[in-house]
Structure formats: C-alpha cells, structure tokens
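Journal club prep — side note

Before the paper discussion, L.F. wants everyone to see what a predicted structure for a comparable chain looks like in token form. Sequence:
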Amino acid sequence: MRQRVRALLELRAQPLPDHYRLPLLVIAAGALTVAMVWAWNRAELTIDDLSWQPLAALALVAAPASLFLKAAEFVVAARIAGQRPGPRLAMETAVVSSAANLLPLPGSLLVTVKALADGGAGYGGAVAASAVPGIAWLGITGVVGGSALAIEGAAAVGLIVLIGGLVAFVGAGAVFHSTGPSNGRPALALAILLVETGWLAVSGLRFTLAAAVIGVDLTLPQALALSVAGAITVAIGFFPGGLGVREALIAALSPLIGLDLETGVLLGAVDRVVWLGFLALAGAGLALSRQRTNTVSAA
C-alpha cells in the first residue's frame, strides 16, 4: 500500500504539458472575473458597503499567518526528510512555493520537492516528505469540515467529506511510516498535526474576516465547512493556485450551509484578492532582501 501511495504522489507531482498551461490560466482568470462582477452586481454592493477593519485584519494578520504556516509546513516536511532548514530558507520556500501555485501546475509541491532534493533527499523521498503534511491537512480538514457541513444541514455531503478525511489520514500515516526518521517520530507527528490544525484555524479566520468585509456574519461551523473547498482544490492540484476552482467550490458549498450563491463567490474573491496582494508584497520583500544580500557578499 505504501508503495502505491508513493507512486500516486510522484504522479501527482508531475506538471501538465506546456500547451495546456496558458489556456487554463486564461480560462480560470476570465471565469473568475466574470463571476466576481456577477456576484457584486447581484448582491447590489457598493464600495461604501465594505468594512475596512476586517479587510485590514485579513491583510495584516490572517495573510501573514498563512505564510508563516506555509514556512512551518516546509520545516516539518524537511524534518521528515532528515533535514533542518533555517528560518530564512523556510520563509523563502514559502513565498516562492505560494507564488508558484499561480501557475497551472502543482507549484507548491514542485518547489518544496526541489528544495528538499537540493538539501540531499532523493526525488522519491522528497515527494513523499513534502506530501505528508498536505495529506494530513486534507485529513484534518475532511474530518472537521465534514462534521461542520453535517452540523449545518448538509449531512450527505458532510459524511462523504468526513470519510475522505479519514482515508487521507490513513494515507498520511502510511507515507509517514515509510518515510519519516527513525528517531523523534511522536514529536514530529505532533508537530505536523499542530501545523495543519493551525492551517484549518487560519482558513476559518480568513473566511470569517472576508465575510465581515462584505457585511456577512459567519458562524464557526460555516467558516470551517467552507475550508473544505481549499482541501478539494489542493487535491486537484493542477489549476493555478486553485484559481476559479476554489471559488466555484466555495460558491457550491454556500447554499448547503445557508449562504447565498453570490455571497460564496464574493467570499472567495475577497480572500483571493487580499492573499494575492499580500503575496506580491512578500515576493517584493524577498527579492529586495536577496538583492541586499548579494550586494553585501559582492562588497
């Protein structure tokens, strides 16, 4: 079973052929833009209707927390591969892998695999080590998000998602058992669970703040239920950062938990726009930091 899981992971890490990438990116961006305009008009919102305090919290608190957790996720993946990366490498990998997700390929996985392979792990081991935290996140999100869907009245969908989460946990455990280091496994497993639980918590926070921006109050189960959309998007993997797919899934889940379709589209759009803006600033900061380092080294 472990060999089959690792084979599937290596297949998952392969990018789409070049001739599919640009059309997918154009189609996804175009469809998302049309959906955003439709939802904005349908909700009859104006700029004056937006709340700026939760928008600031989304950009200055939730988005940085997401990037920090991305770096922490790389650290635990590196520990699985027997490596101990420094904070700078972890943060650089977090920024670059997040940016790579904007391309029509499993960008985050490919960047993480390359970083681990450069650190001395073999390709197969790097793929497995980088995938363990992600699969664990699918498991946590599936169990918690599926339960939240059931609480909100979508019992059938919630049960399917919950079962999928349990299967993901089994897969994560199998890969971790075959890949993880022989020493310190309980502590490392706990660290993985803490990081991925943090991901789920921050995901719920981002949805809650995005809803507040457009004047909608989300309950905790609703916010956690919507996090399932992110998990499914990661499982799909080859769309540019889930662009369009994630928003479509959020919109599809919204009526199941008592939200309007246009509200779901706007929630996904607000979260997406803020995240991309923050990521652009983080990327610019990374480039400036590297330039200064190179200048000092040259001097």
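L.F.'s comment for the group: Residues 149 and 157 are 7 Å apart (CA to CA). Keep this in mind when we get to the figures.
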